[in-house]
Structure formats: C-alpha cells, structure tokens
From TrEMBL:
InterPro entries: 23S_rRNA-intervening_sequence, 23S_rRNA_IVS_sf, 4helix_suffix_dom. It comes from the Bacteria. Coiled coil: none annotated. Transmembrane segments: none annotated. This is Four helix bundle protein. It comes from Candidatus Campbellbacteria bacterium RIFCSPLOWO2_02_35_12.
C-alpha cells in the first residue's frame, strides 16, 4: 500500500522565509502610512480643510476627493496584506501542491507590484520627489536590510515625513520583490526537476504495482 505520508514533504514554516518577513514589514509600514498620509491627508494649500474633520469618521458621506483617497488607502492596505498572506498560504499548500504554491507566490509578487505603483502614484500626485537609485537617502534606506531582527520599528523614523515615508516603502518593496523573484525561480526549478505531489504519487503507485506483479 502506498504510504501517502512519505510523499508529503515538510511544508509551512513560512515565518522563517525572508520574503515573508520582508512582506510583513511592508504590510505594517503601509498600514501606518495610509493612516497618516493617505486616509487623513490634508492639502497643504488648505490648512483649514473642513472635509477632513467633518467626514473623518464616515467614509460614505465624504465628498469625491476624500472618497478617492479613502479608496486608495483601502486598496494599498489590501495589496500589502495580499503580498504577505499569499506567501503564507503558498507555503502551507506546498505539501500537496507545488503548482498551487507557485501560483500563490506569483500572486504575492503581483500584489507587491501593485502596491509599488500606488506609492509612486502618491508621490507624483502630491508633487513629491521619487528618489532615484543613486539618491543617498535611498542608499541609507536600502542598507537597513542588513540589520538583524528587522521590524516596522526599524523604518519608523521615516514616517515623520510623507516623501521620506513613501520612498522608504518603495525601497522596502523593491527588496521584497527581489526575494520573491528568487523564491519563484527556486520553486520553478524544483517543480521541473522533482515534480509535485501528483507526479510523486503516480511514481509511487507505479513502483507499488511492479512490486505486486513481481510477487505473482
């Protein structure tokens, strides 16, 4: 009889994945960013923005401009959450379906790309500067990746200014995308060389039939 247990490789353990850890920081950072700079944005040209106060607690009654930023906040947080959760779900599914794992990690990568666009849109629409790769401030933000035991707190100082915060998030997302690209490459190679659960199950059953036939 085929031993199914032996066919299912170790899976889960997603909390140890660098991609998951980085995506978690992106999510935590985005929640705070949206709270301070998207959901409650006050136009600098209108210091007495009554719409911020009047409609702060009721999204459905906000005027179009406020509704737009409210929707953008929801979309950014959802994209950040999707990037994180799909890595976890893919890791959990990997025991019985490498194909599903590949698909979910791909979804996580796409969600990060969507979030990156949102941060760039925010900078452009607010007339703020997008840091280039050679920008000294971008280099400092990227080097934080080498700190051990990183969390949102590692990047918290950037939250004091919207331009710094958005650009810091972009640096962090790009690093997360790099990790996800490497993860996808490794998963694709493993799937092509070793196959998934279905292929292993078929091989095990075929070997079992041969053994049974040899006993006759």
């Amino acid at each position: 009889m085929t031993n199914i247990t032996n066919l299912i490789p170790p899976h889960g353990g997603y909390r140890k994945l660098l991609s998951y850890q980085s995506a978690t920081m992106v999510y935590d950072f985005t929640v705070e960013f949206c709270k301070w700079y998207v959901e409650n944005w006050t136009d600098k040209t209108n210091k007495t923005d009554e719409t911020n106060r009047t409609y702060k607690t009721d999204k459905t009654k906000r005027p179009p401009r406020r509704q737009y930023w409210s929707r953008m906040s929801d979309q950014m947080i959802q994209a950040a959450r999707s990037g994180r959760q799909n890595i976890a779900e893919g890791s959990q599914a990997s025991g019985t379906s490498k194909k599903t794992e590949l698909k979910l990690v791909g979804v996580a990568r796409a969600s990060q790309a969507e979030l990156l666009e949102d941060y760039e849109d925010f900078l452009r629409q607010k007339g703020l500067k997008l840091w280039s790769k050679i920008e000294p401030r971008a280099k400092v933000a990227r080097e934080l990746a080498y700190k051990s035991n990183r969390t949102y707190e590692t990047y918290k100082s950037y939250m004091s200014d919207p331009e710094d915060a958005a650009n810091c998030a972009i640096c962090l997302i790009n690093q997360t995308n790099y990790l996800l690209d490497r993860q996808l490459t490794a998963l694709e190679k493993s799937f092509l060389e070793e196959g998934g659960f279905t292929e292993k199950l078929y091989k095990s059953r075929s070997e079992q039939r041969k053994k049974q036939a040899g006993n006759w």
